[in-house]
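Table S5 (text form). Sequence records supplied for joint modeling of the two-component complex.
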Amino acid sequence: MREPVLLRRQAAPARTLESYRLSGGMAGFERAKAIGPEATVGAVSESGLVGRGGAGFPTGRKWDAVRTAAESVRYFVLNADESEPGTFKDRVMLETDPFMVLEGVLIACYAIGATRAYIYVRGEYRQAADLLERCAGELAAAGCLDGIAPGGRPLAIEVRHGGGAYICGEETALFRSIEGYRGEPMSKPPFPTVEGLFRKPTAINNVETIANVPDIVLHGGAWLRGFGTERSPGVKLYSVSGHVRRPGVYELPFGAPLEELLDLAGAAEDLQAVLLGGAAGTFVFPRDFDLTLSYEGAAERHATLGSGALIAFDRTTNLWQVAERLGSFFAHESCGQCVPCRVGTKRQYEMIEALAAGSGQGSERELIARLGQVMADASICGLGQTASTAVRSLIEAEASGLLMV
Amino acid sequence: MRERVRGLIDETGRERTQLLEVLHKVQREFQHVPRAAAEVIEHEMGVPMADTYGVVTFYDLLTERPTGRKVLRICEDVTCSLHGAERLAQAAEAALGPEGRPTADGAVSWTRCACLGLCDHAPAALFDEEPLAPVTAEEIGKVGEGHA
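The corresponding structure-token record, covering 553 residues in total, follows.
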């Protein structure tokens, strides 16, 4: 069997700096300091690493923009506000290998010349936040933060606690939250690399993305391309739950078939469907279970990997009830700032409720599709833009006769 | 109470960026963010009371009205629903009373919530900061023992 990359310390978690070092940790950071910031960013760019939080933006390009920014005050933010329904991979990473994540943070800060790093952990992950705080303290006490910040100053790392709002996983909303405001997203551009946290150039990365960094820097950019496909290099973590015998986090190189993931997790033989990509993802039915898990492979089937969440449903599940739950989620989590999303998610929820209860008037399906298009076109951020993706995929599947209940 | 809020601000920081951290501590200490705390925050941190109100009502973990000293959050999201989340909510209601209202002794209140990121151990709940996952209706009932 292939040796896991990101999950390699799962069996024996390294929660002290000493045990982390003994299991090969901090070598990437040492390598970064030896080759310098420019070559470090170069290795990340060459690796083809893209953001694992769902948006898939090239990490190297982000870092390069911040590194070469004219502003001298720059920030790094670790997005640990994992709240996508069905997603728990970042929690598992943080709890089993906190130092690998923090090593990635140190490398990122050194590479972009960050003056300060913020680690924004969702408020419900108090235990993970406390662990990170203790580990960051250990790194500081061991002198690992000394001299990383511009001018040879020590790097400051601050752990912040989210307030329980899904929207704060959106990067500009997360910045507002750190600044002490309601987590309301801002229109882009300007992008965070130009005007991010406190309107300064900011690189923000997801936990899983940053966990890739120490190995990339240590082994060189080409190393990551040894896994996965040409267009999706590397490995991906999947959070698998629902009607499976072994729910948990699984790591696969990009390009593996969806069926393999289902086998690993012990999915029921006769699944009705899976929800791939979380609340903002799509329902995928058995006829598409041969899809390859890569950014391009998912897109080919009009699906999305999103954060890598997979929830499996057996034949007894009423998928309209699942859609109702998703509709309620979006209506509750919409920040309320822009009309298409604030009103759209509410109206959508009401229509899904009617369909789930069997009390629809016949026009709901078409209205949901039209409303979804308006939200996709006119919402400020990804929440409204993707709030109807799942239910629209369900409507299409229903029309093709794929629903069992 | 005002003195205590001032103390929390002193130990956290007076800059606007610390608002959420200060409010988390106020919430933990008083189980809500009282109006008087918002007044102290305005005076000490220069954050208008209206802004504090806006922030408190935005975030699910901050409340205007007192919760119990401990809060039981029951996940009602997709995966936990497949594994019987609704039965847990019923057990909580039976043991602790209506959602959102603290028990008579003020010890516990319960609420439904969105995905807690514990889907690998569904059905899941969070009791204060401690995950209960997987959790049974009986265990939910035990949380309420002696507090009804």
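Note: Chain B touches chain A at residues 15-21, 23-24, 47, 51, 54-55, 58-62, 73, 76-79, 81-82, 113-122, 126, 129-131 (CB under 8 Å).
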